[in-house]
């Protein structure tokens, strides 16, 4: 009896070590080993190994929980007809596809001009596909009575973060050019992003504001404009070499980022900078906690982000008149100062960056990542920082700040015609901490931007987005109500 007990304990102890370390080996083999001197020692640090296994167990539980929903969205997307969705429309310089979803009223009211929601999915910059979000886009389209555009992205390792931002800009540009022929209003666009998709939406808006930031450079804390990021022509064609060689080639051309936005310069397809907007909206900030009730409804409790518990409002001001922008020197025919550009076919002149930015009336971020350095620390606590695609997609830790919206916004001393921001987060989110949203909300408030932060109690990272796929799910009404309220505010 005693011998059997000892044998059982020995087997259990062996398995408690063998299984976690085997899982850690497989994850690092697939995702990549730490890029440090003692990479194996770091990869097999006991604390890191068991933290990683706990994160894998959480992922497995999520997969089991949403398995029925997986079959629902697969079946829906396969059977959806052209009156519901037009699939696989090519767009952009990276040769990607997008889907367009129509509300039911679209077929009976062809002369209507519907607002447009552009949904950018998450996936840690390294996974995800537009096909997965057909149910979500369909529900949003009908509930909000809008046309929904869902683009595919150049996720890592196919592309890097600048490629993904380029994809979002290209999808906005495609919408601006083509949506009228599909019954949409190109001057009423709202960006909605989840997790890393929320990060890409925020970065897109900040980059489209480049012209205005240049012309109002004196209002920034860092007014001197440095040279922008530069990449080889393969970035613009979407053709990347395989392996680390592609990354090294792009890093070899990496220059100091543009201080105008904190990340990189944006120009249009003709190498011209568009006219900057000179409209400053009255700024407002609101922090709200959504209280769920038994009937599925919620009420908003306003909480002051500083101390007073009242709605904070501040008026933005604008100095009239700007100095004429200096012409940019061309250094080499093969180089392009732009990472994000606007590409347009045909003889019509391309829209300016300001044109595209003005058509974006609001940005809704669902559990977004807004400070890359902070999120890297959070991933480290979960043992995921080395196998996650985030650091690699951002070109390494030395470039985290230039791709962090929260950091970029802090370098602006006042609002620069930003659209309305609505930031949602759940209190039970262990994937992206709640502080990611609250800190970004504070940064936007500091420059008098129009921002609302809404907290949903007991909601986790996945429920905030995936519950929009089924009206019977717990947080469908809470999240959809925020989307509906924002739509009414910005489009009416």
What does this structure look like?
- The protein has helices at 2-31, 39-43, 46-65, 67-79, 134-144, 161-178, 196-208, 210-215, 233-237, 244-252, 353-359, 372-381, 390-393, 405-410, 434-446, 463-466, 476-491; strands spanning 85-91, 96-101, 114-120, 147-151, 184-194, 283-292, 298-303, 312-314, 360-366, 420-426, 451-456.
- It is of the alpha/beta class.
- The protein is built from 17 helices and 11 strands.
- The chain has one domain: Alpha/Beta hydrolase fold, catalytic domain (Rossmann fold, 3-Layer(aba) Sandwich), CATH 3.40.50.1820.
- Strands 1, 2, 3, 4, 5, 6, 7, 8, 9, 10 and 11 form an 11-stranded mixed β-sheet that branches.
- Helix 6 crosses helix 7 (196-208).
- Helix 15 links the parallel strand 10 and strand 11.
- Helices cover 39% and strands 15% of the residues.
Summary?
One of its GO terms (molecular function) is hydrolase activity. The chain is of the alpha/beta class.
Key terms:
globular; alpha/beta; eleven-stranded mixed β-sheet
Give me the secondary-structure topology.
Layout: H1 2-31, H2 39-43, H3 46-65, H4 67-79, E1 85-91, E2 96-101, E3 114-120, H5 134-144, E4 147-151, H6 161-178, E5 184-194, H7 196-208, H8 210-215, H9 233-237, H10 244-252, E6 283-292, E7 298-303, E8 312-314, H11 353-359, E9 360-366, H12 372-381, H13 390-393, H14 405-410, E10 420-426, H15 434-446, E11 451-456, H16 463-466, H17 476-491
Parallel strand pairs: 3-4, 3-5, 5-9, 6-11, 9-10, 10-11
Antiparallel strand pairs: 1-2, 2-4, 6-7, 6-8
